[in-house]
């Protein structure tokens, strides 16, 4: 497996969003968490299997 796998909490905005986008752009995989899944839907649409969305409660 090449690249890294990131688990990023708060990927919907702020630093979490910045880190998630940067990791995905470089080809890494990201487990992006957010309270509202719709807020990170665009990441999984743009990067497909590279981004896995999880809802935090």
Structural key phrases:
single chain; alpha/beta; three-stranded parallel β-sheet; 2 helices; globular
Would you kindly provide a written description of the structure presented here, covering whatever features stand out?
Helices cover 33% and strands 26% of the residues. By secondary structure, the protein is an alpha/beta fold. The protein has a three-stranded parallel sheet with strand order 1-2-3, covered by helices on one side. The longest helix has 12 residues, at 14-25. The radius of gyration is 10 Å and the shape is globular.
Q: Rg to the nearest angstrom?
A: 10 Å
Amino-to-carboxy terminus distance: 31 Å
**Order of strands, widest sheet:** 1-2-3
Q: How would you describe the shape?
A: globular
- Please provide the count of β strands: 3
Helical content, roughly?
A: 25-40%
Major sheet summary line: 3 strands, parallel
- Mean pLDDT rating: 94
Total number of helices: 2
The computed structural class is alpha/beta
Strand content: 25-35%
Query: From N to C, what is the helix and strand string?
Result: EHEHE
